[in-house]
Amino acid sequence: MKRVIETTVRIEGKGDSKEKALSIALGNIQKKVMKDYKGNMIIRIEPVNVNVIEAKETSYIERFFFFFFPRQRSKYSVVLDVEINLFLLDVGQITFEKNEQGNGVKEQVLGSHFLK
């Protein structure tokens, strides 16, 4: 029912600062894992190791009305390979009891326990 999987996830992030780019990239781990492991409930995602594949800084000069107040701006982007331990709960293996209720107006208003 509970499974532990060791896997590597490639994620990327972009931002106005180094910290923001890394934060956005690490925040994408859950989205990537949920897309890859549909039908399972994620209990815990535990990062084990982070490898930087690519880290880029793009600089440009920003000007007001094309001429005034020039300033240096930077954008950052990172691509990471994150090794994770993934704790999953297989929902397909859980057996549920089935209870059927009538859907009449009396049962909805009064409740089925009053009509017995």
Explain how this protein is built:
By secondary structure, the protein is an alpha+beta fold. It has 2 helices and 3 strands; from the N terminus they run βαββα. Strand 2 (40-64) and strand 3 (68-90) form a beta hairpin. The two termini are 38 Å apart. The model has no long low-confidence stretch (mean pLDDT 86).
Helix content: 10-25%
> Given the helix and strand composition, which structural class is it?
alpha+beta
Radius of gyration: 25 Å
Helix/strand order, N-terminal first: EHEEH
Shape: elongated
Q: If strands are numbered along the chain, what order do they take across the biggest sheet?
A: 1-3-2
Assembly annotation: single chain
| Overall pLDDT metric | 86
Q: Which ranges are low-confidence, i.e. pLDDT below 50, for 5 or more consecutive residues?
A: none
Biggest sheet record: 3 strands, antiparallel
**Number of distinct beta strands:** 3
Q: Report how far the terminal alpha carbons are from each other.
A: 38 Å
Number of helices: 2
Question: What portion of residues belong to β-strands?
Answer: over 45%
